[in-house]
């Protein structure tokens, strides 16, 4: 009877690479699910805010725009900061204003369009007051038209 030595036995190694690949795939999928659950936890109890500019459509000149900050129920939000930034229409500088008790912020903007550009947008962002509010989704923009 011939005794086999363990260090010469290669049979256990044959299935090892595929088992490692399967374990890696299952582990990565599980990690992705756990990270999705964890990142979703901080959104419980938060309210997404949106902007309502008035007027929504302006011409290429210095204009005063009243921006109302609203929650999904249409209630106004005070003490939020509204920020106007260049998008496809250019602003000389970023402009911001804080909403009053009525939820309205007044911004004075001077949008410019590039040559041969007939329209563009000014992007609006919200810095919510501390608490349960967030601004993670895109807000309504201001449309700028060439006169």
TrEMBL record:
<protein>
    <submittedName>
        <fullName>Carboxypeptidase regulatory-like domain-containing protein</fullName>
    </submittedName>
</protein>
<keyword id="KW-1133">Transmembrane helix</keyword>
<keyword id="KW-0472">Membrane</keyword>
<dbReference type="Pfam" id="PF24107">
    <property type="entry name" value="DUF7382"/>
</dbReference>
<dbReference type="InterPro" id="IPR013783">
    <property type="entry name" value="Ig-like_fold"/>
</dbReference>
<feature type="transmembrane region" description="Helical">
    <location>
        <begin position="20"/>
        <end position="41"/>
    </location>
</feature>
<dbReference type="InterPro" id="IPR008964">
    <property type="entry name" value="Invasin/intimin_cell_adhesion"/>
</dbReference>
<keyword id="KW-0812">Transmembrane</keyword>
<dbReference type="InterPro" id="IPR055806">
    <property type="entry name" value="DUF7382"/>
</dbReference>
<feature type="domain" description="DUF7382">
    <location>
        <begin position="46"/>
        <end position="108"/>
    </location>
</feature>
